Amino acid sequence: MSSRTVGRLFRRGGGRLRRGMVVALASLAAAAALGSAEARTVRIVQAQTLELRRLDDQEIVIISGDDQGSQVELRVDDDVVRAARVEYNRTRRTLTLVGAATYRTARDGQTLTGEDLVVDLGQEQLTGEDVIISDADLEIRGGQVERVPGQLRATQGYFTPCAKCGRTPNDYAFRAERLIVYPGDRLVAYRAQLLIADFPVLYLPVVVLPLNDPDRQPRLVVGNGAPDGLTVEADLPFSVGTSTLGTTLLRYYENRDPSIGLGVSLRSYAPLPFVDRVNLYTLAQPKPFAADGTQRVGYDLDFDLTARGRVPLTLAVRDLDYSLNVLRRDIGRSETDPERGVTRVTFGANVEYPLFSAQFNYVDRFGPEPTTALTTPLRQPELVIDPKPVTLGGFSADFRVSAGRYTGQSNPLSRSATSQGVNISTTRLEEQHALSFTASPWRNADLTLRNTFTGRYYGTGARTVNLEAGGTLTQRFNETNTFGVSYNYIRIEGTSPFAFDAVAGRRLSAPLTLDLNTVPVRDVTFRATYTRDLILPPNSAGQLPATFRLGVNRAPVNLTYNLAYNFGTGELENTSFNVTVGDPNSGRVTVMPATPARPATATSPAVPARPETVTRSSRWPAPNLTLTASGSYTRTGGYDPFTVRATVTDDVRTNNFSVYATHDIDTPRLSAVGFEASAATTFDNVLNPVSLTARENLDLLTPRLTGSYALTWRGEYTLSTAHDLLLDQPETARESGTVTFSVGTAAGRATNWQLTYGGPYDFRRQGWTRPSLTGTLRATRPGQSLAVAAVLNTPGLDQPRTEFSRADVNAVWQFGSRAALSGRAVYTRTRSGTFPDDVATDTLVLDPVRVGVALGNGPRPGAYLTASLRQTVVWQNGQRVGDWNFTPVIGLTIDRCCWALQAEIDLSIRRYRLAIGLPGSTSYPLFDYGEESGLSIPLLP
What we know:
single chain; mainly beta; 14-stranded antiparallel beta sheet; 61% strand
């Protein structure tokens, strides 16, 4: 088939592969199909034309975009290819990206941009000229680039970590004759020049730039101090092939014996068949000096090995999966730590077959014998067989068997186990099963029989049994009524030698339960439940009381009554009731019109005449009145207060008024009275914009009066008052409680203010003792916030002066994206002594006040200048206490994409610090100077 014919067929079919239509090239018909290149799948996401050519016995498929410049988009597995034109050589299995093209690798997260890129699908290689490679860490430009599995090679290359910032020129970069990139691990450049602001300053034969995650960055820490002397800690990353990444751990301690420590930390992906992941961390570190300064000889060892994998089995439902962990932690443990020198091994394997599943577990420890109890048992080993549940009609059965040898804490209730020590080792066989049967023996009857059993048998001769068998028969009658009989036989006995599976004592019980649910009349429910243990004596404390529940929901009455009575002891355990009388719909009338009689026909019977009927919800005479009463009694706690409440509700349900009274039956006397009210105008939100809430409670036992009132206008402004007063205060007390009045805006608004007057109040002397006027203002806008609070003391019975006692200002103000101001200032005044000779102490606290300015032109500032001030100033009787020390902290941060310089001047302690931050590391202090500590250069030993 010629290219002209293919093009004509393609145009006849629509002439366009639209975005979203993912067409697998391997499935295209006839000669137009691209096929599959080895194991790699190529799919078309977007294209305009498709053409097949044959040149020198080679089949070439040409995929092009449209004339308006839209590109071709392909998927090579998960990689994304975009180009104006793509030529696919089916014979050589290569893709040629003609013109400007991009190739995005899903595995490495890299984007390759260049002219005339060639992709070899068979060998997974890519070559091209004048290619730009970019990812999240750096940008590489190469005259000639070749990509092979696990590597990128470039000649005449240029690379820089600063390209992602978009600054020109780059802070520093490298130009090299040859580059090799190991994605996700490192970049190696040969015969390279170091460029500062694109100006060559240094020649280096080899440059190695780590591209690792932060936890795999090279690390070097040098220190010098007693008792170790000179110390060096170095972490050096490495890689083995394309699936194993690791870090070599080197340690040097000048005064320890030995002085050198070694270790490795690595993770490997699918290093061997049937192994999916391996993690290894091990470090042999010289032992540190003892607490008394004695030198200890030898090594402390940390070892942590984790492996996971799968093994395919022919008849299994899924692959066998396993996990292995070997753990030892000595570093940091004292010589007396019981876990020192202990290696723990945990292994587990799971497999599932069509008829059963199996599990193998091995948990053990090696090292010194344990001297403390093993709360987590050792399984040395354990095998679990779990057959699939079996169902035959209404019968079902489920079994589970496990066997193994265990070591764990001895059961304190077993004398034979505790005689062997704090821990015991023995074998155990456990069998579990659950049997059930369901049937319907006759009409409206349900029968359920069940049996569950767990038996454990130990090598010491001990055993434990947990058996529960029983059944339930439920009979339904008249649709809404049920009667049920349930019987259980429970037997728990035996003593386990282990504490981890010990049973909670011995139990023999046979409870018989009768349960009746009925609706004796319309809108009335009744339930009675009685349980009798046939093994225990009738008057035993273990016998449960019979419970009764009555519910009435017929307007205007809603009643709930509960009672629990113990027939064995003849005592009332508890009772409670709650009754509500009221019907807001009692005034509504429903009229059903009359219907004439209808004679019988061949298809329907005769219908008699029906007169007009008038129905009401109930005969409750007061639709707006609701009465509520509640009370309760318990045998152990006695009577709870009896409460009666009456509520009057307007036609608008938000307007209501209620009064209540509480009676203490034990005293007996009236304990509390009160009322609650709420009202809101509803005619018009502007003409009648008022809402009111009120609450008042009088505790007659204390006596104590509490209440609050609030009046809100238009939902914005609120006038309120609250009080809490003792009506019979002690003779020595000078205050009865508090009384306050407030006015302000409703809470939750962006701009909120409030004024409050009041404070402690003496009911006997009829006045405030220490009143105050408090004002608050909060305003919030995007990038700005202001909070102001002030307290003004006013004259009262025990407070003769008018003066400010506290002022608090907290503000945040952002000026665009280049400057910001924030801070908090608090002023307080306190007095000591007796009026009029008392002394005032004023305190001003700035905690802190901050100013920040961004420097530089461009979208991202290049430097930040900050200043913060923390200050406390005290005046006593108008005179400043101490000297005024203006002690701000000034900081300068130069922020670049791949490095940052931080300088700080603390004038309060006269300290000067300079640090630099590099990629993948914290800040390295360059020097630290203070008047007391002197000059320190931490990087120098």
